[in-house]
Design brief:
30% helix
């Protein structure tokens, strides 16, 4: 009887121990922080040097004494030698009539396009969206007080409505468009017949690219001067205020190759070498990057002057002159990780002479299967706010950090080989 009681006590004790162990493990797992990870990915950073810059081009200014000028070309549009640039009208009425004629011609062209495409298969829901979008755009223009494109926006809305009628089977839509084209054509013919005599036609003195911007620098600097340009001369030009030429109609840029004369407030700039191509980003009116060749490099008096050239993007940059630019001298590539993912291991090492020193190694923990794995890396770029760019210490190792790896952020109490995921 006593033996049976002892056995029962042992069994109960074992069960109690098992229950206590179970709850201990449960509580330990319950209080363990959740695993927080993110994905590492390839990334590149452009490291630029800021510079003051002046755009230099071969330019011929076109002057006029006429008061009522109708320019026929858009900014940056190409023109041949002898091609029409502008019409000088005899009166204000004549100029306004000409502008009305241009507007009517554009309306007729758009209506004819609407008529030619209206009978084609059309997505009705897409047209509904475009009609609503056009209405919202007109509402925004009216609210902002910008009426410069209101007429074109209204015409576009009317075209969309006609095409929508087509899609819903309105058989009178085509007739309405044809009638509208006929009415506008009659109005156009009447205006052409009443148009006052044009007193003068302005033609281009050379083939090139037209610009309506004349800033006075055209007579101060040209590409032939860049080979002997000094830093002092460039600095004076960069700070010079030039009065607009009141009698200038515009200008023609006569060469596809244009130049950028830059002044950098550094004695030397790492990575700048003559003959190499660099990307340049501009501060105003142009938001892309342009690849330009470094033709000339001068370093003196704690400053650097660099002259760049290119034969691309001329039409996009005709309005630019004095600029602040970024010269991209270096591009750093690596794997981007959040700053909190990087960990430092410090080891004490002893050299052959018995001297001890502290050596730091850097790395991240990644999730491989169910375990945490230490990946040693080197930092190639540090963003002050959010991230590091890193590269594996050994690029050939089979186990190394790669783009797309799952990186652990909360690495407290995590060790290499630890099971972090069931």
């Amino acid at each position: 009887m006593k033996e049976s009681t002892l056995v029962n006590k042992v069994i109960i004790g074992v069960i109690c121990a098992a229950v206590i162990l179970y709850f201990a493990v449960y509580l330990a797992l319950g209080f363990k922080p959740d695993l927080v990870t993110t994905t590492a990915y390839s990334y590149s950073v452009d490291i630029g040097t800021e510079a003051s810059a002046l755009l230099v081009r071969d330019e011929q200014v076109i002057s006029t004494t006429g008061q009522y000028v109708d320019i026929l070309l858009d900014e940056g549009e190409k023109v041949s030698k002898g091609g029409k640039i502008a019409l000088i009208h005899a009166s204000q009425d004549s100029l306004e009539t000409r502008q009305t004629i241009q507007s009517l011609e554009a309306e007729i062209q758009q209506l004819e396009y609407s008529l030619s495409t209206g009978t084609q298969a059309t997505n009705s829901s897409k047209l509904d969206e475009e009609v609503i979008s056009s209405m919202v755009a007109i509402r925004s223009l009216a609210a902002s007080g910008d009426l410069s494109t209101l007429e074109d926006s209204a015409l576009h809305l009317r075209t969309m409505v006609f095409q929508r009628d087509y899609s819903y089977g309105n058989t009178e839509a085509a007739t309405q468009i044809k009638q509208l084209i006929s009415d506008k054509q009659k109005q156009l013919d009447s205006l052409n017949a009443s148009l006052s005599q044009v007193s003068q036609t302005i033609t281009s003195p050379a083939s090139g690219c037209f610009s309506g911007e004349v800033d006075g620098f055209e007579s101060l600097i040209n590409p032939s001067m860049l080979s002997s340009l000094t830093m002092q001369q460039l600095n004076e030009l960069l700070h010079r205020e030039v009065a607009d030429t009141q009698t200038a109609l515009g200008k023609v840029v006569t060469s596809n190759t244009w130049y950028l004369a830059t002044l950098i407030d550094q004695a030397s700039v790492e990575g700048l070498l003559e003959g190499k191509t660099y990307k340049i980003s501009f501060s105003d009116d142009y938001y892309g990057m342009i690849s330009m060749n470094l033709d000339r490099l001068v370093m003196e008096n704690d400053q650097t002057m660099a002259i760049f050239s290119t034969n691309t993007n001329l039409s996009d940059t005709t309005l630019l002159r004095q600029q602040t630019v970024d010269i991209i001298a270096q591009q750093v590539e690596g794997i981007r990780i959040p700053r909190q993912a990087l960990r430092v291991n410090t080891e004490t090492v002893t050299d052959d002479e018995g001297n001890q020193s502290q050596v730091n190694s850097y790395g991240v923990y990644t999730v491989v299967g169910t375990q945490a794995e230490w990946q040693e890396v080197k930092v190639v770029y540090s963003d002050d706010d959010s991230f590091y760019l890193v590269q594996p210490v050994d690029e050939t190792a089979s186990s190394r950090l790669r783009a797309g790896d799952e990186v652990i952020l909360n690495t407290t109490n995590i060790t290499d080989g630890m099971v972090v995921r069931s």
